[in-house]
Amino acid sequence: MDMIYLDYAAATPLDSQVYAAMQPYASERFFNPSATYLAAQAVRTELEAARARVAHWMGARPAEIVCTAGGTEANNLAIRGVLEQFTGSNVVVSAIEHESVLAAAHQYDCREAPVTPDGIIDVDRLISLVDDQTVLVSVMYANNEVGTIQPLRTITQRLSDVRKARKLAGNTLPLYVHTDAAQAAAYLDLHASRLGIDLMTINAGKIYGPKQTGALFISSSVQLRPQVFGGGQERGLRSGTENIMGAVGLAVALDIVQGRRHDETARLQQLQQLFIRELEQAIPGVIINGSRKHRLPNNVHITIPGTDNERLIFQLDDAGILCAAGSACSASNDDPSHVLRAMGVADDDARASLRFTMGRQTTEDHIRTTVEKLKHFAA
Fold this sequence. Notes:
Structural class: alpha/beta
Oligomer: single chain
CATH topology of the largest domain: Aspartate Aminotransferase, domain 2
Distance between the termini: 23 Å
Radius of gyration: 21 Å
CATH superfamily of the largest domain: Type I PLP-dependent aspartate aminotransferase-like (Major domain)
Largest sheet: 7 strands, mixed
Helix content: 25-40%
Mean pLDDT: 95
Number of strands: 12
Strand content: 5-15%
């Protein structure tokens, strides 16, 4: 039986072109980029070329890109790196952030901005939480569970007005904006200045690149306090021998997904529409969670009232269909999804919810087979 994989939000397979580009750095080009001999300096040049390729897609300078061991580290560096500099300051986040943002932010004075029932940030409420001591606002670009795309540009424009008012009042505290773009990088524009953001997290493991590899865009106007100390690599912000293999893999993966994003978005949107249409015809009472309009093209998140999502996941797994109940990072937690709770979904319904996320290998046959099996198991 062929496997039907519908959990691309959790992990993507390594692209063959990415794998080929990485291979030399596991064998003949293994040198430490910080060494002084010529072979190592050649590898250093290749590391900087990879950094420049990542920077290109963010409309950034290479010096504004710090390589990290994945999205979680990048989120922690962004949040902790800002907050630790300003005693008595606070941070505002959306209530549906990834756990790596929420857990880091709650080490400080943190305010959570609510979302509407369709999973979109309430911009007015968010702005109302920003006060004279707020130094950071973190709102994810697209949610990892229900796929909602947040109105980042609207938020950053409103925060620009707050900055201007502060300046007139003589308040010299900075007000930075961070976005976790881990789920968005394959489908949305990452240009930092167009979005109006100061810090952005991306994760190679979500875009057909290597796991435990990511990057943080840090605007040149932002000063961060390092979280990893040692040899001073990555401009002193992330010490440790540089992961040249991962950086090259990230750069190639980002080139591929950004180059294909319009075509792949159109293809996945057709599958998404088919998936939703088939579900609504096959399963009376099924609920589609999250905005239908402002949504990643690969995400279908549903509630089937009266069912047990854990049982359904096991049954689908036995049938060769792999999906999730929510974020893979919190799969061992028995509590209902904090994202669904923030959207006003009752706990019983949250425990009857499933996340399907599609990707490059997903076909119409996969969708139809999944709906057929789900109809049978949910009956």
